[in-house]
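Hi X.,

You mentioned you wanted examples for the new student's onboarding notes, showing what a folding record looks like when two proteins sit in one file. Here is a clean example. The first protein comes first, with its sequence line followed by its structure tokens.
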Amino acid sequence: HHLSSRISAQRCKMYSTLGLLVLICGPVLVALIVACVLLRFAEKDANWLSFLTCVAGVAIAISVVAVMPYDVWQALSRGDDESNSSSLLRRTWAATYWTTALLSYLLCPILMEYENSGDFTTSARLKTSLRRNAVFYGIYSFILVVLLLILISRGEVQGDLQSWCIAASNAWGLFVLTVLMGFGLVAVPRHFWSLAHPNKLLQDLYRNAVLKDETRLSRLFELQDAVASARQELSAYDGAGCEGCGVDGTAFAVLSQMTEKCETLHLELHGQRGNREKDIGGISRSPSGSLPLHPPPSVARFAEVHRNLKAAALEARRASCCFESHVQRCIFFEDLEHGDYRAAVSMLGIRRTTMPGTLPSRFCSGTTKLYQTLLTFWLRHVRARALLGLGHASCILSAIVVLGQLTLFADGWHLSLLSLFFRQDYGPWLTQVLCLIPLAYMTYTAYFSIFRLKISGWYGLYGNHSTDTGSLLWCASILARLAAPLCYHFLLLIRVRGTTFQAFMGQMNIVPVLGESFNQVFPCLIALLCCCNIFNVYSRFLQFFTLGVMEFELGEASAGDDPLTDGKQLVDRERRRRAEECDLELQGRAAPFFASAAPAG
């Protein structure tokens, strides 16, 4: 008995140490990795408060998903004895949930509108942000009040304010997850299979290249119009004089500086490096006093023009980044299709340096050569087979997830094959691995769908420091909002009882309409949405019900007489342009070297 007590004490000590590592060291490590990744996407002049908020939101979302297997293992290891549940884990879930709610529902929206505001002082931008968010919060509050009045009239109001907040947030997240997973559970296997066959994938890429180029040109014209409007306001200010118009020098200087930046951006996106004073791309500077019918300038008009100018610049940059990344994908898969694996490796940014150097540079060159060799071997022999295997595995996982969601409402019989793996404890490591695989796949399908959404006027992630702060905040907000509903839905799917996360989220079960019944019945719609996606009508339904505001990027319709040929010609032209720019860059780099190597005199 004494020996068994010592073994039990040592096991409890090991488990508590593991819990501290998971709950404290894990999120810190995740936050550091997220910060390093987001630095590659964020603009170099991003607001530090907004950037830290983005890091916190994404890190918390990933940490919630990463800690869930540990909670499942603890529930299985202690069985029906809930008295041994970890108090640290309970407090961690509560603190994490309300911190996530504060970030995603309050701080991120306020900072997003603050970044998009066109006002010229901090206080004015903050007031504008609060006013714009108050409109949305007012609409949500009105809907909630109407629902409460209906339930009060029926005598069905139960639960406290905390339970209602959790239920409302979870219902919103589950609704969005149903839409996303209805697309992702079918699109992810298709995506892997299409990646394994570059020939079929290139046909879709060529068609989409035409649409993306049209979108890019349209955004550039909108930027041109916004710059022209700003020039008119500035000219009207010069003609009216500074007295009596209510516009101070700060607003004029900020708008002038933003107009100059947008003109420079317009030239850069056009690929032109000429004289900025030239009338390139239709941007002209109106002379002072040439607008006699223009209304007198004011701070409100300046703020509106400034906001429109910022929005046009962001949309133009986003469209250009999407087009450039799409062309890069087309060129990469063309190289794969033609068997030019060295060119494909160079498209991934792996190039050897030919200039002589010191011993460290030679070591780096050797390492790069080894990495090129391994990557070429991967592209030539392994990549297609691995992607086909991933496609088949993801198809099986999708089928298992959909079958389990069809019978979430059933207490006795069910079709959840995942629950067979969680009937007993297999130890801390194997149990968490078995939990992490399906949870990670469900997370990937949901977030895969998020970044395939095309939402008018919304946001995305763009590499090479091209992502604006508003896009980062939106991504952090949406990821943080979906983490908790996704994990709770996963726990219902695997039918594990007694987790501390369920004990916290279970407060909403007594809430009528949005509580337990909603979580068990509503996910059944995922099977219907998957069927619509299989028959290629899901994107049309989504466009119809959202009035054309939302659509998924895959399966787009293409315009034009022969979009396939037009897209291929467009990619060929971009390939030649990039080759010419690369040659010019190499000549510019080599010129100083050969000049220094030439004999003096």
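Then the second protein repeats the pattern, sequence line and then tokens:
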Amino acid sequence: MWSLLLVGVIVPISCDAVGLVRHHAESSVDSNPLLADTVIPAYGKVKVEHVRPAVQGRLDEAKARLAELEASLHSSSGYDQLLPPLEELYELYNKPWAMFSHIQSVRNSPEMRKAEEELRPAIVDFGLRLSQSKAIFQALASLNASAAFADMPEAHQRAVSQELLDRRESGVALKGASAEEFNKLQKDLSELSNSYGEHVLDAKAAWNLTLHSKDQVKGIPKRALEAAAEAAKRAGYNDSTTENGPWLIGLDGPMVGPALMYGQDRSVREIILRADSTVASNGTNSNAEIVKKMLKLRQRKAELLEFHDYAALSLANKMARHEDAVNKLLDDIKAVARPAAQKDDDELQQFAASGAEVDGEKLPPLDHMEKWDIGFYAQRLQKARYGVDQEALRVYFPYAAAIHGVQGLTGRLFGISLELLENEEANAGKWHQDVNFYMVSRDGKTIGYLAVDPYSRPGQKKDGGWMMQLVTRRQLPDGHLVLPVAAVMTNFPRPQGGKPSLLSLGEVKTLFHEFGHAMQHLLTQQTESSVSGTNGIEWE
């Protein structure tokens, strides 16, 4: 189920309206890619001047469609009169904003942020208006309580039940002052959440450490130093070289990991780990007060919805359901895992204190190991005890081989093929030159499309790895089947100096993990948006 709060919305439109929407979108392909009716969304063509007219235009149309839907509903409205038009309105309203939000997460810019700040209040206002529609809620409740509900397909039952839960958590039952307070909380939380993300992105982009001495970078892998030298050149050190520096260290994952695991200068490791651990906790990008406000507002939101606390509210649509179940699971894991973890920690402390010799080099003995020492000494212990060097393993996992491997595995497991797509529509869909699109087929029939965006872009792209739903599989009222499109997002080290990107074993695991999520989205057989792919499924 698409979120009813802050971004996604719901409203019905008739089959005739669907035709009008699609026709209107087709007429705008060249002028506004956010409205283009293409199989693969044209992210690569989106400019900041497209955002306001697309989002505001669809918002105005959605308001009219909402009023029409509410007027058409009654206590005996069936599934076909309620859910299909509701999902079509989700698509009508959500598409340009969802495309824009994705671009913000992978190609962030000041101009895009300004547009978002201007449009977000209207988006949140309409999301609240829609999610709190009494007419839609009453129609859903009547359908859920009707005799016909038990005979509906399981997917339809799930869609109705999830809609009701989402709307209850969106404050549909609140009245008067409580409703006003709830809506203000939602608007404030939306603003705070957006500011939090921007602060993290800006703080990471702003921090860097320039090192001039070879002793300061001793032990750091050459591939990381190549990237650090290139970064120094971009910062104005035109004579920087991999061998002689200076080297500019940033807080992107492909740089922090090697520096902490292999850098022999303990003081440099401390500086980097402290900076990485305290991102956006001080200065102009501090999130300290934002976190405090968010915790307070979340607690009050939970109370307004008659939950004990925000954890209970969050668990209402998750598999655990109750806080006691979560605590029991954590306690059970702790009881089993802690003794082994303590044993590993004791062994690592002893190894660090021993001043052992690894690869002919004696390590400096430590009486007390700090957090910035753990990765360094753990890597040396692995090498001394098992002959395993995580950096040396990278030569076995060039990115091209890793992506080929995951393609082969998905083919064997699911009977599908992934073929690199290099046509005009795929090129228009690329939000960055790093991106590749693949056509996903089974038995010679196209069933969806997959984008892969592999490399880190500090200051523009969010950290970590994730799967993004770009298009959800669904069947339109006119019978047309919309094919799903997914994106696998990672932050692997970029190729340097004509050499391929070499992945660590952990990064390979990330690639396979996110591919798993993408397969769930792409291989779905459902045709209802709210239960298609990863939608409508409780979190673990």
